[in-house]
UniProtKB/TrEMBL annotation:
Signal sequence coordinates: none
Domain of life (superkingdom): Bacteria
Protein name: Cu-processing system permease protein
GO CC annotations on file: plasma membrane
Molecular function in Gene Ontology: ABC-type transporter activity
One Pfam family cited in the UniProt record for this chain: ABC2_membrane_2
Transmembrane regions listed in the UniProt entry: 23-41, 61-81, 108-134, 140-167, 179-199, 252-272
Keywords: Membrane, Transmembrane, Transmembrane helix
Organism: Roseateles saccharophilus (Pseudomonas saccharophila)
Length: 280
């Protein structure tokens, strides 16, 4: 039986610790500065500044979120368990009347609260500008971007928790976290595109039909990108991936379910690994 009160106490402590060490404040400032700069000056190379349309604003911020949100989530959670193990405090925590699952969930929820608070605080100022420029219709699209950014952060936080459970050393966990960031954010699409070019399209023929589009579901950043960019009909023709994304993936419900899968699956695997571990 899971004790929600214990999980809530652990989550609250984890959240307060992030506030106390000013992590949430620094992250919120980073989100605010970069989102304001990109939203306002994103069209400077075309000779325009300011918010031109909600589609262009969201598209510009998607690029920021893909780089910054996963990085923040991985840095926040990679040492959640392995850090306690190295400091010798994990034995003390497990000596309390608390299960390993409750400990994992408490830490995850506390870190998730800190991450969401920082990201929402950072993106909310641009949201005010979007509302002033485009009224409720524009704000509706922007709120969808903010919610999908939250899902992206939670997905990478789940991956960070899995890494923290599996890793035996904090330094090694930090290195693997950077590898995960490079792999999902930079290498995955580059490798897929490189394989398509190197095979002179033969790989695309082998991955017949809509299979290539579904391969993108193996990367949460691609799910996030499709959810925000390709769901807007007037933006689909601006991106090369639009040609391989099947219509079935254009449904927000399908993409949201895929993102929820990226949140739940690594966390369940981390819980199973942590509970089955005989040593701390």
């Amino acid at each position: 039986m899971i004790h929600l009160q214990m999980i809530g106490a652990l989550a609250g402590k984890e959240f307060r610790d992030r506030l106390r060490n000013r992590w949430a404040l620094v992250a919120a400032l980073l989100f605010t500065v970069f989102s304001m700069a990109i939203a306002y000056f994103g069209g400077a190379q075309q000779g325009q500044v300011g918010l031109r349309s909600v589609e262009v604003t969201v598209t510009s911020l998607v690029s920021l979120a893909i780089y910054l949100v996963p990085l923040m989530a991985l840095l926040l959670g990679y040492d959640a368990i392995v850090g306690e193990r190295e400091r010798g405090s994990l034995d003390l925590l497990l000596a309390l009347p608390i299960t390993r699952l409750e400990l994992l969930l408490g830490k995850y929820l506390g870190l998730a609260a800190a991450l969401l608070a920082a990201s929402f605080a950072g993106f909310s100022i641009v949201g005010v500008l979007v509302y002033r420029a485009f009224a409720w219709a524009g704000l509706f699209h922007y709120l969808g971007f903010m919610l999908s950014s939250a899902l992206l952060g939670l997905a990478f936080l789940s991956l960070a928790m899995l890494l923290s459970v599996v890793a035996r050393e904090r330094a090694r966990a930090s290195g693997v976290a950077m590898v995960l960031w490079f792999g999902f954010v930079l290498v995955f699409d580059l490798l897929l595109l490189g394989l398509l070019v190197a095979s002179s399209g033969q790989l695309g023929a082998w991955l017949s039909g809509d299979v290539l589009g579904y391969v993108l579901l193996l990367n949460p950043t691609d799910v996030f990108r499709i959810l925000n960019m390709f769901s807007m009909e007037d933006m689909r023709g601006l991106y090369g991936l639009a040609s391989v994304v099947p219509d079935a993936l254009m449904r927000p419900g399908v993409l949201t379910a895929a993102m929820l899968g990226w949140i739940v699956a690594p966390l369940l695997l981390a819980a199973w690994k942590f509970r089955s571990s005989s040593s701390c």
